[in-house]
TrEMBL record, chain A:
Residues 65-437 form the ResB-like domain. It comes from Ureibacillus manganicus DSM 26584. One of its GO terms (cellular component) is membrane. It is found in: Membrane. The chain crosses the membrane at residues 58-81, 126-148, 220-238, 469-489. Residues 535-556 are annotated as: Disordered. One of its GO terms (biological process) is cytochrome complex assembly. It is a multi-pass membrane protein. This is Cytochrome C biogenesis protein. Residues 540-556 have a biased composition (Basic and acidic residues). InterPro entries: Cyt_c_bgen_Ccs1/CcsB/ResB, ResB-like_domain. Keywords: Cytochrome c-type biogenesis, Membrane, Transmembrane, Transmembrane helix.
TrEMBL record, chain B:
The chain crosses the membrane at residues 6-26, 47-69, 81-98, 105-123, 143-166, 178-200, 259-278, 301-325, 340-357, 369-391. Keywords: Cytochrome c-type biogenesis, Membrane, Transmembrane, Transmembrane helix. GO terms for biological process: cytochrome complex assembly. It is a multi-pass membrane protein. This is Cytochrome C biogenesis protein. Its main location: membrane. The lineage of its organism: Bacteria, Bacillati, Bacillota, Bacilli, Bacillales. GO terms for molecular function: heme binding. One of its GO terms (cellular component) is plasma membrane. It is found in: Membrane. Residues 88-392 form the Cytochrome c assembly protein domain. InterPro entries: Cyt_c_assembly, Cyt_c_biogenesis_CcsA, Cyt_c_biogenesis_CcsA/CcmC.
């Protein structure tokens, strides 16, 4: 393989910018710099070296930080579009047509366009996933591309660096120490640097003090964490990894838990409480008069016996009793049940008196369980009521005059009764709905007089199981760890050489936080009487500005 | 004095202390003439920091007493959250001050904190009971960490603004001069918003209207400013109150629109007055105050505060938020607008760091980015909370 041979004789890999051995700049670009670009210590980056095959091109595309930043910005902008209008997940409409109508009705033609382009379900669009996946690939490729050469060069650092390297550092010092100190100056520096928690290495009259090298791995660690997290998120798409079901359960009911094979749930009662505070200003302004305090379902969790047949419910074993509240889900076996919704006072039972319209005399009472209506309600030998038709959610009559029902839920029950009485052994037919009675045969003798309702509360629960949680946790933890390492520590290096004539040359570099390395330098400069350092970037611009401003002042 | 009154008083003390500290810092810089008065400047500067710390302690006092009174961390409505954000902003300023020892930061940090606290005061201040989903320790942990992260990130915008005030040449026409002045104009608009609300509150203005909402339901609403825009099919209920000048359709919230337009009108008048009296741009008025700042140092402070704030923000606004969401709703992420905007903020600062590392976007460019980042944070606080309703909406 081709090599890049430095004047010092060291063979560097092609693409190296700064000789790994002595630190001499190798490329024309590096030679022309007043302050060397110390990114990755000038080591050869694959993407900056090869650009021939397709693989190289793809590799270079994804490893480019420019591309990476572009991907981040695109993701950011696209994500923000999804917050302009409500996402579909927050729209109550049950089916596609309903959702389409919702966007058009609520937001006009813009809403329609938004829906048609898929922005209303943006975060589930395939192209959104592709975008995030590209971001992930970019993170992986860029990290390998730079991480490996960086690791190599950090591991093999020489203490002695060439003049052209030292002089091209941002912070440098050159000069003499007072002759009395001259012989032992490096010893003094070494001792002081060690006190400042630097690791010090010596090579003859050259010294390298280094601190916080591990912080250079911070970004790579955090990128690994991000990738693990993304993998966890992608795994949601695999079957068996993620369960998301919901159920409605009435008080007193015992039902199989969807998604949780072999388990049953009993709803003992649902509790809804409000705060008894004085209404606050915000409440008054919004016309709300109570603030919810607690939503709670008291449940018993059952498990089928080992040998039970599917659906068999006669010998259930109690697993536990619990009160499910918001923020306090029921957890069992990796599954969790969350309090999500509720319906208060759902109609349960309606009672009627079979009443003689004229005399007002009642022959008896009939109570209809709206979930389990019976065909026939017997009052005595000659008196009974047949329930001919039941419309749990009555919504009016169609063109043929037949009653219609919207759903099987008893929201607005309507009945067709046949009332069999001693006077009318064949029965009289009556259609009864809330606040409405129709008598198809004309004038009936009897009526079903409404006498009372019984209501019940219903609780809406969500069942979730997510096997990726541990992966997400690990990813998140590694991400934060890497972030902290890379942000709260930094890699500081100080090179010092002493020449035969007693001259001292110093150079310093840090990957970030120049303010603090200068404080360290101040400390050793004073302690060992080193020549004063200068910051080669210490802004000429700053000085220009200051002069400009001073001139302005004088003019004013 | 009851605990909640004490709490209110402590907040006022903090506000006044920050005001005094701002003036002291201004004074310390003004007196920093090349006539060797540096010692004097230092003395004023140190006094300013001392007053800031006193104010901050009082602010913490407000926070703790209110917490004890209400039984939950006071971060559960707009007033509480915004006030806490102001507190963390001052705390972050104090933290960065002790790292770099530059008082000039306070010149921008404290007025911004003052604006934020005054703005918070426009919202109802009574203690609100918590709805079930907010009854969790994660509310405290998540909101406090996220707000702390945001406020440290905001310090980079403070450093950036100072950087630009010095760096941008206001003598020459250009984009940078325009946008710099636009930012300052925006700050005056916020002041306009506060002034409008304070004035109409002081005269006790109140008008009630009925209207028909999106779902065709009849509702009532109270305006505390004269109604420029009226709600859909608005009818005036308060005797003698003015009828709205313009009625808007149901999907626009006319009261919010009215508030914004009032802020723009009053703010613009204020801005024009300032310009007429001073006969210069606000940027030019501030320039002498930042004359002596070291650009290189302020650039580094900006970068450093992003480095410190980013992990805290990631922890609070993403990680803790996900843990809480998992516990409350069984899903760690739900694409709620507030969540999405936290993600956007996070992505933005990630882009900031990468641009700085690889493209060498330092100094001027980095300062502009820091200001954009702060704009996103403020957008998240104001627009997402008040306009884009979601699970997190306090409005
Ligand atoms: C949202 C996703 C990302 C996050 C949160 C993230 C986070 C970070 C952080 C915090 C740093 C350290 C910055 C500093 O210390 O100033 C960093 C460095 C870096 N990132 Fe990322 N990153 C992300 C995506 C990417 C992507 C897509 C690329 C691909 C090009 C990339 C490539 C790099 C590189 C090359 C470094 C420099 C490493 C070094 O200094 O040795 N990152 N990243």
């Amino acid at each position: 393989m081709e090599k890049n041979v430095c004047v010092c004789g060291h063979e560097n890999p092609v693409g190296t910018k700064i000789c790994v051995n002595c630190g001499r700049p190798l490329t024309e670009e590096a030679k022309s710099q007043k302050v060397l670009d110390m990114k990755y210590d000038g080591s050869a980056i694959r993407s900056k070296t090869y650009n021939k095959s397709i693989v190289d091109k793809v590799w270079n595309f994804f490893s480019s930080v420019k591309v990476g930043v572009a991907l981040i910005i695109i993701t950011l902008v696209v994500s923000s579009i999804g917050t302009i209008l409500k996402q579909e997940a927050f729209v109550a409409a049950g089916n596609e047509a309903g959702r389409a109508a919702f966007y058009e009705d609520s937001y006009g033609s813009f809403g329609k366009l938004y829906y048609t382009l898929g922005f209303s379900d943006l975060y589930n669009q395939i192209w959104y996933l592709v975008l995030v996946a590209m971001l992930g690939i970019s993170i992986i490729v860029a990290s390998i591309d730079r991480g490996i050469p960086l690791h190599k060069s950090l591991k093999n650092q020489r203490v002695r660096r060439h003049e052209s390297f030292m002089k091209r550092q941002r912070v440098i010092a050159e000069g003499y120490v007072p002759s009395s100190d001259s012989s032992k100056v490096l010893d003094v520096v070494e001792e002081k640097m060690k006190k400042l928690n630097y690791k010090v290495r010596r090579d003859g009259e050259a010294l390298l003090a280094e601190k916080g090298r591990f912080s250079r791995y911070g970004p790579y660690i955090n990128h690994v964490g991000l990738i693990i997290f993304l993998i966890g998120v992608l795994m949601h798409k695999f079957p068996g990894v993620y369960v998301d079901e919901s159920m409605w359960i009435r008080e007193g009911e015992t039902r199989a838990i969807p998604g949780m094979e072999g388990y049953f749930l009993e709803n003992k009662q649902f509790i809804f409480e409000t705060h008894d505070n004085d209404p606050t200003t915000a409440q008054i302004q919004q016309g709300v008069n109570a603030v919810a305090k607690n939503y709670q379902t008291d449940i018993v969790l059952y498990k089928q016996a080992e040998d039970a047949l599917p659906g068999q419910t006669d010998n259930l074993e109690v697993v536990k009793e619990y009160s499910i509240r918001v923020n306090h889900p029921l957890e069992h076996n990796g599954y969790a049940l969350y309090q999500m919704d509720f319906r208060l006072n759902e109609l349960k039972e309606m009672s009627f008196q079979l009443t003689n319209k004229e005399t007002g005399e009642a022959l008896g009472e009939v109570a209809v369980d709206l979930r389990n209506p019976k065909k026939e309600y017997v009052i005595d030998e000659n008196t009974k009521v047949e329930l001919m038709e039941f419309y749990p959610d009555f919504s009016g009559f169609n063109n043929e005059g037949e009653p219609q029902t919207l759903s099987p839920n008893p929201n607005n029950p309507a009945f067709i009764f046949n009332m069999i009485t001693p006077e009318h052994p064949d029965g009289e037919i009556s259609f009864v709905a809330i606040q409405q009675t129709v008598e198809p045969a004309g004038d009936n003798t009897y009526k079903m007089a409404f006498s009372g309702i019984d209501t019940i509360n219903m609780s809406g629960l969500t069942i979730r199981m997510d096997k990726t949680i541990p992966i997400l946790f690990v990813g998140g933890f590694i991400f934060l760890l890497g972030l902290a390492i890379g942000s709260y520590w930094n890699h500081r290096r100080i090179w010092i050489q002493q020449f035969e004539n007693g001259q001292i040359r110093l150079a310093a570099h840090t990957n970030k936080n120049w303010f603090s390395i200068k404080k360290d330098l101040d400390a050793i400069t004073e302690h060992a009487h080193l020549p004063q350092y200068i910051d080669q970037l210490d802004d000429e611009k700053d000085k220009d500005k200051d002069e400009e401003n001073d001139q302005e002042d004088q003019k004013n | 004095m009851s605990l909640i009154d004490l709490s209110g008083n402590l907040l006022e003390v903090a506000f006044i202390a920050y005001l005094i500290a701002t003036l002291l810092i201004g004074g310390s810089i003004k007196s920093n003439k090349p006539d060797g008065a540096e010692k004097r400047a230092n003395k004023w500067g140190n006094l300013a920091i001392l007053v800031t710390i006193i104010g901050f302690l009082s602010h913490i006092g407000y926070f703790i007493t209110r917490w004890i009174h209400s039984g939950h961390a006071p971060v559960s409505n707009m007033f509480e959250f915004t006030t806490a954000f102001g507190m963390f902003l001052v705390g972050s300023f104090i933290l960065i001050f002790f790292m770099y020892r530059v008082t000039a930061l306070g010149l921008v940090a404290l007025p911004i904190a003052l604006l934020i606290i005054a703005w918070a005061g426009m919202f109802p201040q009574d203690v609100t009971p918590l709805v079930p989903s907010l009854q969790s320790h994660w509310l405290t942990i998540h909101v406090i960490t996220a707000a702390l992260g945001q406020s440290i990130l905001a310090i980079s915008a403070v450093a950036g603004l100072i950087y630009l005030l010095k760096d941008v040449d206001t003598k020459k026409k250009g984009k940078q001069r325009f946008w710099l002045e636009a930012i300052l104009y925006f700050l005056v608009l916020i002041l306009g918003n506060i002034v409008t609300s304070a004035v109409f509150n002081a005269v006790g203005y109140e008008a009630q209207y009925s209207y028909v909402d999106k779902n065709g339901m009849s509702q009532e609403i109270i305006y505390n400013v004269p109604a420029i825009f009226g709600m859909n099919e608005s009818a005036t209920l308060t005797e003698g109150a003015m009828d709205p000048m313009i009625e808007v359709p149901a999907f626009i919230h006319a009261l919010k629109l009215t508030t914004v337009v009032w802020a723009i009108i009053v703010g613009t008048i204020l801005y024009i007055l300032i310009r007429l009296i001073a006969r210069r741009r606000i940027a030019d008025m501030l320039k002498p105050l930042v004359k002596k700042v070291n650009l290189q140092l302020f650039d580094e402070i900006g970068y450093r505060s992003v480095l410190i704030g980013f992990p805290v923000f990631s922890l609070g606004a993403l990680v803790f938020a996900m843990i809480w969401a998992q516990e409350a709703w069984g899903r760690f992420w739900g694409w709620d607008p507030k969540e999405v905007w936290a993600l956007i903020t996070w992505l933005f600062y990630a882009a900031f760091l990468h641009l700085r590392l690889s493209k060498g976007w330092e100094g001027n460019k980095s300062a502009w980015l820091a200001l954009i980042g702060f704009a996103i944070i403020i957008f998240n606080l104001v627009v997402v909370n008040l306009v884009i309703a979601g699970l997190h909406s306090y409005a």
